[in-house]
Amino acid sequence: MPSAPTTAAPGTSEAPGAAPAVASRAGAPRAADTHCPYCALQCGMRLSPADGVQPGAAPASPDGAAQVRPRPDRGDRASSLPLTVAPRDFPTNRGGLCQKGWTSATVLRATDRITTPLLRGADGELRSASWDEALDVVVGGIERVQAEHGRDAVAIFGGGGLTNEKAYALGKFARTVLRTANIDYNGRFCMASAAAGANRAFGADRGLPFPLADLGGADAVLLLGSNLAETMPPSVQHLAGVRSRGGLVVVDPRRSATAALTGEPGDVVGPVGAPDDGRSPGLPVPPPGAGPVGDQGVHLQPVPGTDLVVLLALLHVVVTEGLVDEEYVAARTAGFDDVRRSVTAWWPERAETVCGVPAERLRYVARLLAAASPAHGGAGAYVLTGRGVEQSSQGTATVTAAINLALALGLPGRVGSGYGAITGQGNGQGGREHGQKADQLPGYRKIDDPAARAHVAAVWGVDPATIPGPGMPAVKLLQSLGTPAQDREPAEVRPRALLVHGSNVVVSAPDADRVAANLRALDLLVVCDLVPSETALLADVVLPVTQWAEEEGTMTSLEGRVIRRRRAVDAPGEARSELWILAELARRLGSDVSFPTDPAVVFDELARASAGGVADYSGLSHARLDADERDGGPGLYWPVPAAEHPGTPRTFLDRFATPDGRARMVAVDHVGPSDDVRPDAPLYLVTGRVLQHYQSGAQTRRVPELDRLVPEPFVELHPLLGVRLGVGDGDRARLTTRRGEIEAVARWTDRIRPDTVFMPFHWSGEGSVNRVTTDATDPISGMPEFKVCAVDLRRAPDPQEVGA
């Protein structure tokens, strides 16, 4: 049977308690208990000074921005690293780390680390500059653009990897210094649909409203659109219990590493033979036609873009077979009658014709989930969603259908059961709570709420009337940059200047070539980054900033657990924190608003600004978080509305955060992808991540150990499709969509549907898949449809053939 990925180093053992950074002489690396710089699992790790490292930071070339593709040193550079990494026994990772976590210290010594400000000269090249010179250019550009085009002509694009303190300061800077409405962030690409669905249903959005460890006691977990075994390998430990009971259900058009954990013998994309006789006791018996199921669960392999149909069919079975928790629905929800009527249209046989999952297989999974629910005597069940179903033009509807299913089974707000969305970016949760979003103020407040504006304005010391209203969401914002007024927004509100913090949109945004063209058309592009990312390479000004092990602050994990990030090494050269940069820009722009640079002081202000909001941090401080760790506490989950409040590991146990305390069930229906298959593009293109790389690859492509394992983009296709198209394993393939064409090496695999191809999105250049993804968005959340579009695939001609 498939086993979970190994994440712990041999012989590693850590006590549950944690300690702040250990004092050492100035400039020298120091020991610190902190967290991984990558995903929202925020694995606990201990950083220790490496043997033989001298005080201070090794300089990087200030001309590194000229390097388009990182060239990792192929030698053994371990001895030059300032720190060693070891896992801690933190509740989310339990002493494990993935390959990215183990090698995270390597990025601290990236050979092309930016260590001085860079300015684009008259020759078009980036050159080193002083901070005074660079900030003068930024301030002059902002003042000129706003004088000519209005305040909203300057925009900010933030990132889900910024600390809570930086995200808060960035939103405050936009609204009080620039006084622009146009701020959004790359979390709009990741969590917007999940947030929209949860806010509508529950009145609050905390990705997982329960500790991750709670999954271990469930009889069933339905996981849609998430490949945890590759994106968050240590989290798979928490699925061991449900796997042992045969209750893991994975919905994915690929037989991913996570789908393989179900123990199924192979792909099931249509009606197949007799059920497997080797089922674990206590589970429903698969009916004839359901196909084989694994000894640890079930893999549903739908047509891309039809996950919503799967959910509607599952709820149809729950309703028609009398499996609804009627008592719970009557006491804790509203709107079920409309939902009940709407799902009558999606009986399993009809659903099968759309999603490709056998009807009896859908029935089996619905019964499995019901049997696991408390109403039917089960130990508990969870419904979890990820980007695979949320990054869709019907992402909010799909999340809503998942929530409807969970509510019908009586799961949310019960210990040992629930619905949750798996946050992706390191601070994807905290980053969307304190003001980076276009429509938001700190504490997850709505920017158009008069009471919220008054409260936050009092903390900031400004008139509420001066705070701008909602701005453009991320995709619309990027579409509007530098484009002719007749095509997009009126000239007076079209952004002509953009400040980018913690995001590499040239690789990560949909229809990326268009985004790059828009960036080039700006009057001013300022990028804060630690390495010369593809976006930084287009900038007029590049400002070098600190990274994870070089700074203090807080992050909020996928569970809503607020945790401390601690400094273990000084930043190289002249790199500065965004907190200092924003304070200095505010001063130079003549603002009277205070911008402290001490992260602990910034957090205290954030806590006051969040008081009374949905995401209430007012009972937290750096000192309290440090003390909790020293005492071996479980961590503190928001909301924490007072200094003596213990935090809220599990939300909604008594009531939902709606005016009447009831969850809202909303009827939804399937429409399908915005860019569906057609004669000239007969295949589905789906995108995702690989184990070794993270997001746009700006960090992980600079780690030699990771780059060696997966050095270039590739396209996965089924051997049957390869034979039919004449594209062999190892050939270069050309993919064409309505946005353009790209090329990548073909990899044959039987883990994917024959009508579907898969590409990871971590690279730039000719194999950058987001150059051809669609920028169509969900009408409610504004989230782009990264995960499915129509594509034509052919063998790319050899260079010799082209020249013949």
Automatic annotation (TrEMBL):
Q: Which residue ranges does the record assign to the Molybdopterin oxidoreductase domain?
A: 113-259, 299-587
| A GO CC term assigned to this protein in UniProt | membrane
What keywords were assigned to this record? Iron, Iron-sulfur, Metal-binding
Which intervals of the chain are annotated as region Disordered?
1-26, 52-86, 261-287
Q: Where is the composition biased (Polar residues)?
A: 1-10
Query: One Pfam family, short name please?
Result: Molydop_binding
Q: Name one GO biological process term.
A: respiratory electron transport chain
Do you know which InterPro entries this protein is assigned to?
Asp_de-COase-like_dom_sf (IPR009010), MoPterin_dinucl-bd_dom (IPR006657), Mopterin_OxRdtase (IPR006656), Prok_molybdopt-oxidoreductase (IPR050123)
State which residue ranges cross the membrane: none
User: Its domain of life?
Assistant: Bacteria
Question: Which portions of the chain have biased composition (kind: Low complexity)?
Answer: 15-26, 55-66
Domain Molybdopterin dinucleotide-binding, residue spans: 683-790
Task: Write the protein's name.
Answer: Molybdopterin oxidoreductase family protein
Q: Which organism is it from?
A: Cellulosimicrobium protaetiae
